[in-house]
Design brief:
Blueprint (H helix, E strand, L loop, with lengths): L6 H31 L11 H14 L6 H18 L4 E4 L3 H11 L4 E4 L3 H9 L5 E5 L21 E6 L11 E5 L9 E10 L3 H7 L4 E8 L2 E8 L7 E7 L7
Helix pairs in contact: 2-3
This protein binds prephenic acid.
EC number: 5.4.99.5
InterPro entries: Chorismate_II_sf, CM_dom_sf, CM_II_prokaryot
Enzyme class: isomerase
Length: 253
């Protein structure tokens, strides 16, 4: 605060800024209501994770000043949650892991209904059966237990991975999650495909060499074959595509 400023003066400025932001939020909600009422929006789920990622990337690119980037994303996540609720609502199935439930609340907003499930399989069934619009599952990782390896049993005919969370994190996040839904995600302009391969036994290095540009997330060698999960810009012919989602931002906080 400059010496010439008074506390009352700065607070008056904050009040005026709050009024301005509130007016813009109300106008934004009116625009969402018009979008919801028009026939222009494609049918299916109201959630458009690609569009949300594109908006966040645009704002992050122009962002400057003292508001942390993580705070900017959190504020807009709540705006998107309110916007989705305005268009009919949304619920998320979460497995019995408090850290995943926290990630779900951070991403989908504190007002979004979380539906706790007894297991990963139950969370997937909740989406398949229409009990929840989406499910949050632990992002596949090396060394996971067999019952955690949902991606090996994933029904790619019916379900889609539509997001990789968190969207923004400085460096490698301690916990990542996949969001699964019935409808595929829309394009964000910079997306990745998650695909599963079953091949005759092959080392991780050989797999990586055969798929240049892809990230080998997991390569399990079991009884004469390799079951692998990869992430890349496109999937090779013959791969089982589990989904497509916005490439998360791993920049500065
Ligand atoms: O663009 C849309 O389709 C919207 O519904 C609007 C909006 C938004 O608030 O910007 C809300 C929810 C979607 O997930 C994406 C974007």
């Amino acid at each position: 605060m400059a010496d010439t400023e008074t506390l009352a003066g700065v607070r008056a400025e904050l009040d005026a800024l709050d009024d301005g932001m509130h007016a813009l939020l109300m106008r934004r909600a009116d625009a969402v209501a018009r979008l919801a009422a028009s026939a222009a929006k494609p049918s299916g789920t109201v959630l458009r994770p690609g569009r949300e990622a594109a908006i966040l990337r645009r704002l992050l690119r122009r962002h400057e000043g003292s508001l942390p980037r993580a705070a900017l994303v959190r504020i807009w996540r709540e705006i998107f949650a309110a916007s989705v609720a305005q268009q009919g609502g949304f619920s998320v199935a979460v497995p019995p892991d408090p850290a995943l439930a926290r990630l779900a609340a951070e991403h989908f907003g504190t007002g979004t209904a979380l539906r706790p499930q007894p297991s990963l399989a139950a969370a997937l069934s909740a989406v398949a059966g229409g009990g929840a619009a989406a499910a949050l599952l632990p992002w596949p990782r090396d060394g996971e237990a067999e019952e955690e390896a949902w991606w090996t049993r994933f029904d790619a005919q019916q379900l889609q991975v539509i997001a990789r969370l968190p969207f923004l994190h400085p460096g490698e996040p301690p916990l990542e999650a996949a969001v699964v839904a019935l409808n595929p995600a829309d394009s964000s302009g910079e997306d990745r495909v998650l695909f599963r391969l079953e091949a005759p036994e092959e080392s991780r290095a050989a797999l990586a060499a055969r798929h240049p540009g892809a990230r080998v997330l997991i390569a399990r060698r079991e009884a004469g074959r390799t079951r692998a999960l990869l992430e890349a810009e496109t999937a090779p012919p013959g791969a089982t595509v589990l989904g497509r989602y916005a490439l998360p931002e791993r920049g500065a906080a």
